[in-house]
């Protein structure tokens, strides 16, 4: 097996990809190297930046170095790490008219000893009619089939690209069919327009459509990943490899990358980065350097940012905080916020990939945290696996205590003692649950389990979060068989929303609903009002 998984979070994973040129730990960022000119020599990338994998273009290499005998791409680039070569399908599409056949380019990649190589696929492009998209998918599949006999005794890893553009059904078909062929790596052809126009929600749809239909144990490469602010999003959706030329292209254009966006050098007075370039130079020095020197320094800084971001992603997967990282990066650009919101649609996919226990608390920052796997998993398990005690036919919903675990909080212990003193054995007829954002209903006897006590949530709650919480409780009640529901509530927005939503739910399900309301639900007066009401229930 060429690919071995070590850790996972969301749909992202840390893996080890074995190639003939060495082992690559994923997620891996691969700088795009132009075989003709390099602003940072690949040898320096390996030594000073610890870049263990790069990607270059076999078509451009063939066009310029075809007369060099026994050319080895590692020697050409003066780089002793892992080299992936693209087939140049994209260049052929863009510049057209240049004739090269798939057997030729496959043979060439074998000759120059690429460690990871790509068949001659047909990139889908953007804004093309559906018939054209269908053609690119079918023709890529046809070429993939034709490539199998040409690569079967190769020691390189071969990439089977998935096409389909924004047509998710065609991506799914493309992924299913190519996933059934004996490739070791897959790649998603992402139209440059999607990246350049920051259509990140579309990209989310495209990646998930591919991931759902590809064999999960094969790594997925995202072609042309672009800006480092979206690396964590791509990793969270299960992309294991991504290439980008942004470090060099942005440098050429006087742009300074940060993990959250891009700054123009002329707008910078201070360098907000701890890389060697930014510690050795001032903003003024960068601005007044010669053009060539400035481009070189900016490229070095930009490369440091891309690599540090990749390490931040790996650390986040390792500690189970990848969702937090994606949330932070979503502030970099509104298009990233839109992509984060899009994750709600795929919350079940995110949940499936995430470990059940992360050993640390969960932070809820705003409504966008509702797609976190902890919320999805808890809601699912409560509905699928939890059963109330048989005798406890009356549901008593208690407002959120201020301390966690809820059933161990001082205020709840007093209330619980009071209920016991006043109701005696009748307390067995009560199914005591708390209601709290974002989980909804929390049975008292589960409130110490992970993550129901290990979380922090923002206040005041936003509308989406109170609505989500109230709806989760309503859904539970609809599926349960309680004879009556009591709400013991305070004066917060969540209390209002829960009462309002449950009035409708209980009317619809013909369950008797009673509300006991107090501004201070933890006062002795409030306790007495509750037990007096409960005593009347027979
Ligand atoms: Zn820097």
Describe it.
The protein has 538 residues and is of the alpha/beta class. The strands form five sheets. Strands 4-5-6-7-8-9-10-11 form an eight-stranded parallel β-barrel, surrounded by six helices. Strands 17-16-15-19-20 form a five-stranded mixed β-sheet, with helices on both faces. The protein has a three-stranded antiparallel β-sheet with strand order 1-2-3. Strand 1 and strand 2 (12-19) form a beta hairpin. Helix 11 (246-252) packs antiparallel against helix 14 (291-319). The longest helix has 29 residues, at 291-319. The structure holds zinc ion. The site of zinc ion has 6 residues, from helix 12 and helix 14.
List descriptors.
single chain; 538 residues; alpha/beta; 8-stranded parallel β-barrel; 5-stranded mixed sheet; binds zinc ion
Task: Please outline the helices and strands.
Layout: E1 3-9, E2 12-19, E3 22-26, E4 28-33, H1 42-49, E5 53-57, H2 58-65, H3 73-77, E6 82-86, H4 89-95, H5 102-111, E7 116-118, H6 130-151, E8 157-162, H7 168-179, E9 185-188, H8 192-196, H9 200-213, E10 220-222, H10 231-236, E11 241-244, H11 246-252, E12 255-258, E13 261-264, H12 276-280, H13 283-288, H14 291-319, H15 322-329, H16 334-342, H17 347-353, E14 362-364, H18 373-385, E15 394-398, H19 410-423, E16 430-436, E17 440-443, E18 455-457, H20 463-479, E19 484-489, H21 493-509, E20 512-517, H22 524-535
Parallel strand pairs: 4-5, 4-11, 5-6, 6-7, 7-8, 8-9, 9-10, 10-11, 14-18, 15-16, 15-19, 19-20
Antiparallel strand pairs: 1-2, 2-3, 12-13, 16-17
Helix pairs in contact: 5-6, 6-7, 7-9, 9-16, 11-14, 14-15, 17-18, 19-22, 20-21
Bound molecules: zinc ion (ZN).
Zinc ion (ZN) binds next to helix 12 and helix 14.
């Amino acid at each position: 097996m060429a690919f071995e998984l070590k850790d996972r979070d969301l749909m992202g994973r840390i893996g080890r990809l074995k190639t003939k040129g060495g082992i690559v730990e994923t997620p891996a960022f691969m700088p795009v190297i132009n075989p003709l000119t390099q602003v940072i020599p690949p040898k320096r990338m390996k030594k000073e930046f610890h870049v263990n994998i790069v990607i270059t273009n076999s078509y451009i290499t063939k066009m310029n170095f075809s007369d060099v005998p026994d050319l080895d791409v590692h020697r050409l680039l003066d780089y002793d790490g892992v080299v992936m070569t693209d087939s140049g399908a994209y260049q052929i599409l863009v510049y057209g008219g240049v004739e090269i056949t798939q057997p030729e380019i496959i043979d060439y990649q074998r000759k120059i000893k690429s460690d990871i190589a790509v068949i001659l696929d047909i990139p889908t492009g953007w804004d093309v009619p559906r018939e054209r998209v269908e053609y690119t998918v079918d023709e890529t599949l046809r070429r993939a089939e034709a490539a199998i006999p040409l690569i079967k005794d190769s020691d390189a890893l071969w990439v089977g690209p998935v096409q389909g553009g924004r047509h998710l059904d065609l991506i799914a078909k493309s992924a299913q069919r190519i996933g059934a062929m004996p490739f070791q790596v897959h790649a998603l052809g992402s139209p440059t327009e999607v990246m350049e126009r920051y259509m990140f929600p579309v990209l989310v749809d495209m990646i998930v459509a591919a991931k759902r239909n590809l064999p999960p144990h094969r790594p997925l490469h995202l072609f042309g990943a672009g800006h480092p602010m979206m690396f964590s999003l791509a990793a969270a959706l299960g992309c294991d490899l991504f290439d980008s030329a942004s470090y060099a292209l942005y440098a050429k254009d006087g742009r300074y990358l940060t993990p959250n966006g891009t700054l123009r050098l002329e707008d910078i007075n201070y360098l907000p980065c701890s890389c060697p370039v930014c510690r050795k130079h001032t903003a003024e020095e960068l601005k007044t350097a010669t053009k060539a020197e400035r481009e070189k320094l900016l490229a070095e800084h930009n490369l440091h940012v891309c690599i540090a971001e990749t390490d931040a992603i790996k650390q986040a997967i390792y500690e189970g905080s990848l969702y937090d990282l994606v949330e932070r990066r979503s502030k970099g650009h509104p298009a990233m916020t839109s992509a984060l919101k899009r994750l709600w649609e795929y919350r079940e996919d995110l949940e499936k990939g995430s470990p059940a226990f992360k050993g640390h608390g969960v932070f809820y920052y705003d409504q966008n945290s509702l797609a976190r796997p902890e919320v999805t998993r808890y809601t699912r398990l409560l509905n699928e696996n939890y059963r109330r005690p048989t005798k406890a036919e009356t549901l008593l919903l208690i407002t959120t205590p201020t301390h966690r675990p809820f059933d161990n909080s001082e205020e709840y212990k007093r209330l619980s003692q009071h209920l016991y003193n006043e109701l005696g054995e009748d307390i067995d007829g009560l199914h005591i649950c708390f209601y709290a954002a974002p989980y909804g209903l929390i049975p008292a006897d589960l409130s110490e389990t992970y993550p129901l006590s290990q979380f922090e949530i923002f206040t005041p709650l936003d509308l989406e979060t109170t609505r989500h919480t109230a709806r989760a409780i309503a859904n539970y009640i609809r599926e349960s068989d309680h004879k009556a529901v009591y709400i013991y509530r305070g004066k917060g927005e969540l209390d209002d929303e829960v009462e309002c939503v449950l009035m409708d739910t209980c009317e619809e399900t013909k369950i008797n609903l009673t509300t006991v309301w107090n501004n201070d639900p933890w006062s002795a007066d409030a306790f007495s009002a509750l037990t007096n009401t409960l005593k009347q229930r027979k």
